[in-house]
Amino acid sequence: MVCDDSARKDAAAPAVFRRAGLWEWVKGEIWMKRWMLVLLALVLALALCACTTGEQENGGNAGDEQPETGDAANDPVEDGGADQDETDRPIYYFVEGQLVGSWEDGQWVSAVPLGNWDGDAGEWVSAGDGTDRTFTVAEILAMERCYVYDREMNPTVVLQCEFPTYSDGLGGFMDEYEREPSVSELLDSYAAYVPEESYPDRVFSLPTVLEGEAAELAVPNYSFYFSFGGQTWALAASQPVEWLNASRNVEEWGDDVVDLSAQRAAVESYLQERGLTAEGYDLEVVRDDLNSDRTDEYILLVNSPRDDALGFWSADGEDPYAFALVYYSDGTLETVYERTIPYNEDATELFSIHLVAAADLNGDGTAELCLRDGRWEWGFYYVMARQEDGSWQRVLQADNGM
Ligand SMILES: [Ca+2]
Ligand SMILES: [Ca+2]
Question: Are 127 and 394 in contact (CB under 8 A)?
């Protein structure tokens, strides 16, 4: 019976095996041992393969003979890969809805050239330290999400961005963008919501990827506002920031009355040193730890006396001024921003400086100050950054128009 069985198996064996004599080897008495050897070799080969692949994924020993894995070190890896990708992107900042610029490649990049308009000379005068570029609406809508901050509110995340589009452009002042198809038509197919006709705002989900002509639309650099979740917040950013601004108008804060006599004395001597009136000036005080040394600093917004009804300065014959200062616990005063103009009897210009937000935007441990420079029917937003020598530089700027 055994022989019969063996013969049947021989007959069923593939002809090619029989010709090569392999079948004898396969069916031999020690076939089990041989197959185990083959299996062991297979397992060893697989284990070797797995080790090599692991090294390549970690960017470790990707050898020259493996050029296709040479980029592995630059590819996002599973742990923190998304974070790595995020940190390579510019971080965008919006002050009261207006794009002021970004932090990218380790530097500030302003949305408009850093400077002041010199009305007498009829030209821009450079101010600040940094560069600027044109931003596209496409890069703003590519933001994964937006972190928004406002007074007395917990920071929150918003996944919606809105802005106005018109037939001839973005915003209301961009006739040079007139085109066919209109800007509205270009963007409507990407919008999550298009309101009733004649209402210009379009609502977009974050992120939205624009393509073609739509991807080339520049963010207007004059009087153009983004809102996020329906609001223009004090501050919005594409990455979380260290938000301060906790104690505003500290003199008026309920039971926590703070004696500001030292700060007021410092302000008054500061003004007198500059030949400016120290009577009736307008003072706004914000208290917080700007430099992470666990001691509060005082941000002092000092504006010249004003007529409450008209908003013009009210000290006849005195030069009007606006200052943003930081007062440290040792009595040191630093000038963040200053503007004075000679008194003019035909005084029609209004200007004042206000703090919109204080936050460490670039995560270096020192807060930047976001200021609103209000002028007569025009104005600017500035982001001021403290330098190592204690000076403050304007690093980002937006033109807020009306
Ligand atoms: Ca401090
Ligand atoms: Ca900072």
Answer: yes
- Give me ligand 2 centre to Cα 241, in Å: 9
Q: What is the pLDDT of residue 39?
A: 65
Per run of 10 residues, the mean pLDDT along the chain (length 402 residues) is 44 48 51 61 61 39 36 40 66 97 96 82 79 96 97 90 82 62 87 84 96 93 91 96 75 66 96 92 90 93 78 70 95 94 67 91 96 83 95 94 64
Q: Is the pTM of this model over 0.85?
A: no
Nearest bound ligand to CA 369?
A: 2
Residue 70: predicted pLDDT: 37
The predicted pLDDT at position 52 comes to 45
Taking the CA of 367 as reference, the closest ligand is 2
Domain ranges of the chain: 2-57, 89-241, 247-360
Spell out the long-range contacts of 332-340 with Cβ–Cβ below 8 A and sequence spacing 24 or more.
Answer: 333/266, 333/267, 333/270, 334/386, 334/390, 334/391, 334/392, 335/392, 336/299, 336/369, 336/371, 336/384, 336/392, 337/371, 337/373, 337/382, 337/384, 337/392, 337/394, 339/373, 340/274, 340/276
Contact 305, 277 (CB under 8 A): yes
* Residues with C-beta atoms within 5 A of ion ligand 2: 360, 362, 364, 366
Task: Please tell me the distance between residue 296's alpha carbon and the centre of ligand 1 in angstroms.
Answer: 5
CA of 87 to the centre of ligand 2 (A): 16
End-to-end alpha carbon distance in the chain: 106
User: Which ligand has the shortest distance to the CA of 392?
Assistant: 2
Closest listed ligand to the CA of 93: 2
**Residue 360 CA to ligand 2 centre (angstroms):** 4
Q: At residue 325, what are phi and psi to the nearest 5 degrees? A: -125, 155
User: What is the phi/psi pair of residue 163, to 5°?
Assistant: -160, 160
Give the per-residue pLDDT at 294.
93
